[in-house]
Write a structure and sequence with these properties.
The chain is built from eleven helices and no strands. Helix 1 packs parallel to helix 4 (about 100-130), helix 3 packs antiparallel against helix 8 (about 215-255) and helix 6 (about 150-175) packs across helix 9 (about 260-280). About 75% of the residues lie in helices and about 0% in strands. It is mainly alpha-helical and about 300 residues long.
Length: about 300
């Protein structure tokens, strides 16, 4: 007698096998002689968007770019803080009947926990080398708990778009970037983060699919409502981060910005944050493939949201 392995089980098993092949360690990426180079930019211009700020000189644009690099890691560390418990909660519903799925998801949570440690390690290196303190939105546990207070479907969809956003950032503006002299250590972090997140997109898609099968139509509607509420919630945090970055820039440069200069920096950076952390994810073709299952009304709503964050 032969048995057929379900496609879902195969997907979990293949994802787990790919994940175990990556398997990097934090000490491979940062520490010892692997130091951040503060003579170079950390983020590509496509993500930081500092060049068009006319009130900043070249040195100040470099400093703001590095502040944006610090904030980039802070925000991803924050995101990982709600991904880990979300995945673990999903594992509880999977149980031991599908042991392959359970192992793959636990490995997913373990990798996300490793990312938190990695980002914190880089933050320590940044604090040592940058020369002044940079503030990030928080407290992180409070923000994570606020996200997790929403329905699981909404949270999983937020996580899924963020996973695809990570992929887009690395592939579109970092991997083959020959025109910008970016810090190799920072690029190494983003590359290794990208390698593991590539498996997470598969696993999060599987979690969304499983959850949708278990929910009543009214519960799916409630979850989708929460997804859009969470986008607004995350955007409010991003707008707070823009102002914190401006304060960090003033500290680092010793400069007092005029009202008009502040307005210019904030306006450009707000659009940058909207695109980098929301627009580039919710408009990703792979995310849309998953989201389109919910029908034309929800697709139209996502399109309107996408337009406001991609302009």
């Amino acid at each position: 007698m032969t048995t057929t392995v379900p496609i879902t089980n195969q997907a979990y098993e293949q994802s787990l096998l790919r994940a175990t092949k990556v398997n990097w360690k934090i000490e491979d990426i940062i520490g010892g002689d692997k130091r951040l180079d503060f003579t170079k930019r950390f983020l590509p211009e496509a993500l930081a968007q500092v060049n068009q700020i006319s009130c900043l000189n070249k040195a100040e644009k470099l400093i703001l770019n590095q502040i944006r690099g610090h904030s980039y890691l802070h925000i991803f560390s924050l995101v990982e803080e709600f991904i880990v418990p979300c995945v673990i909660n999903h594992v509880k519903t999977t149980g031991l009947e599908d042991i392959v799925a359970t192992q793959a998801l636990l490995h997913f949570a373990e990798e996300e926990s490793k990312h938190i440690r990695l980002f914190r390690r880089f933050a320590e290196e940044f604090e040592i080398g940058f020369g002044s303190h940079c503030e990030g939105i928080g407290p992180i546990p409070d923000i994570a708990n606020a996200v997790l207070g929403h329905r699981p479907l909404g949270v999983l969809l937020i996580i899924l778009y963020i996973e695809w956003m990570t992929q887009y950032h690395y592939l579109a503006s970092i991997r083959d970037n020959k025109s910008e002299s970016l810090d190799p250590q920072f690029c190494s972090l983003l590359r290794n983060h990208w390698l593991e997140e590539a498996q997470h997109t598969t696993l999060d898609t599987l979690m969304v699919e499983q959850l949708v099968k278990e929910l009543e139509p009214s519960e799916i509607t409630a979850g989708l409502d929460d997804f859009f509420k969470l986008i607004e919630f995350l955007n409010s945090g991003l707008m707070m981060q823009v102002k914190l970055d401006l304060e960090s820039l003033a500290r680092a440069t010793g400069r007092t910005f005029t009202t008009s200069e502040q307005q210019e920096i904030i306006a450009i950076q707000e659009q940058s944050y909207k695109w980098t952390f929301i627009g580039s994810g919710v408009s990703h073709a792979k995310f849309l493939e998953v989201f389109n299952q919910f029908g034309t009304t929800w697709q139209a709503q996502l399109l309107e949201v996408s337009k406001s964050y991609c302009s």
